[in-house]
Amino acid sequence: MSVPRGALDIHVHAGPSVFNRTHDAIVLAESLTRQNIAAVYKSHFGNTHAHVRLAETHVPEAEVYSSATLNSFVGGVNEAAVEHALETDAAVVWLPTLDAANFNVTALGRDYPFPVRNLTVADDGRATNSVRSVLETIADHENRTVLGNGHVSCKETAAVLDAIEEMGLSVPYLVTHADFEFMGLNTETQARLADRGAILEKCYLPVVHGDLSAAEFVASIRRIGIDHCVVSTDHGAVANESPPAAYETLLETLWNEGLSEAEIEQLAVTNPRRLLGVETPA
């Protein structure tokens, strides 16, 4: 199964970073471009705008997008960090990841040199005022920017979606690496979120980690509906394949588990590009 033209991995990690990465931002852009893969660069430690601008300068043919993660390193969930992300053309703003109260950093299997802030985005089942301000800020921006739920809990994920609906906002909502066990999102819960308009990130890393089998992974995509899913790798850690190699493995896995070329193209090209509001290059 070859990588289809216009494939876009919505979740990759590059260096420099506190964590060791397989590639720095420039070398990763070179590798992605050789494999005809576009990507969104993500960092747990802030905004990847600088990484992306450097990559674009050194690899002009690369198609790479920045994002920002609302951990304590940018002040947590706050309008200022989001305004900066929007002005630097972030494709995605992620809610807390390593600082999320729902996430145990010891599961990383590596040293984490910072205190954990235990950030939450909902109180008594209702999205916090800071989250609501972030939603309004994203909705008011002229360009399309996606909100990702990061590592927050199942109840918090639903509370943010509740707020989007209650406030009548048009904010694309991505449920990140939904198949990791710590997310607490079984397939039926994912399907309910999709029915309410969320997009489910069907990420290869949980399969690599053994949270579910390849067969279960594809079965969950079918249950949720291919229209409501995007595929990604979440790769970049030195213990794993490089992101471009992992992306090829991911597509091969989908093919081996019975998805058609048209279905894989929808998951890899059509859906992520529609979510980000970007066209397929000619």
Automatic annotation (TrEMBL):
<dbReference type="InterPro" id="IPR046249">
    <property type="entry name" value="DUF6282"/>
</dbReference>
<protein>
    <submittedName>
        <fullName>DUF6282 family protein</fullName>
    </submittedName>
</protein>
<dbReference type="InterPro" id="IPR032466">
    <property type="entry name" value="Metal_Hydrolase"/>
</dbReference>
<dbReference type="Pfam" id="PF19799">
    <property type="entry name" value="DUF6282"/>
</dbReference>
